[in-house]
Amino acid sequence: MNVLADQRELPPVRLHIPRSVWANMLDHARRVLPEECCGLLAGHGSQCSRLYELENADHSPVRYSAEPRSLIAAFRDMRERGLELLAIYHSHPTSAAVPSRTDLAENYYGTVPRIIISLAVNPPEVRGYVLHPDRWQEIELVVVADPPARGSIIDY
Asked: Is-contact 130 5, C-beta < 8 A?
């Protein structure tokens, strides 16, 4: 299947992901090899601030589904913190960082961006998408500095 991005679907989307969140996402993908990892990124607007590692209930190297208890706990915590779901991430342990047929067919969260981490290359390739039933639209992922810790003094 030749899937092409249709840039007319949505305005350009950009997610800003702090370095520590980015590093934790890659670490999660590596730790659960040979299985696919899955998780959520939350924050406000386009600014990610929190990562939620989910358990892959399928324990599979070629597919994932979030274990229900970990998914419910993540959404409960988001609600308590006043955070929005900004993206869903998962890994492709042995294939490219592009949406698979399964990714497109099992898109239960509409236009919530998807981040795919390919561990088939070193360093891992990480790309983001908005998925549609028969195609995808790539989005920009921007790694940004971690915000200063609350109460810290910043020297300029």
From this structure: no
